[in-house]
Amino acid sequence: xxxxxxxxxxxxxxxxxxxxxxxxxxxxxxxxxxxxxxxxxxxxxxxxxxxxxxxxxxxxxxxxxxxxxxxxxxxxxxxxxxxxxx
Length: 86
Ligand SMILES: [Zn+2]
Known about the structure:
This protein has two helices and three strands; from the N terminus they run αβββα. The protein has helices spanning 2-37, 78-85; strands at residues 47-49, 57-58, 72-74. The chain binds zinc ion (ZN). Residues 1-20 form the signal peptide.
């Protein structure tokens, strides 16, 4: 009887451990999935350009290497791009 009780306790304990360990992992993965499913904003390729030098393009905000002016965000003009494609 003692042996059976020991096994039962062992199973119960290991089961509880797996349950306890499995729950947070599932919750974390679920949260990650939810985040992936509904992204708040698409990480669009934002480019920064200089007002004086349109040929200066940077993926990060900074200063123009030519004149030192602060780079401004270049808005991705979708309509323009489509017109350009055609
Ligand atoms: Zn410039």
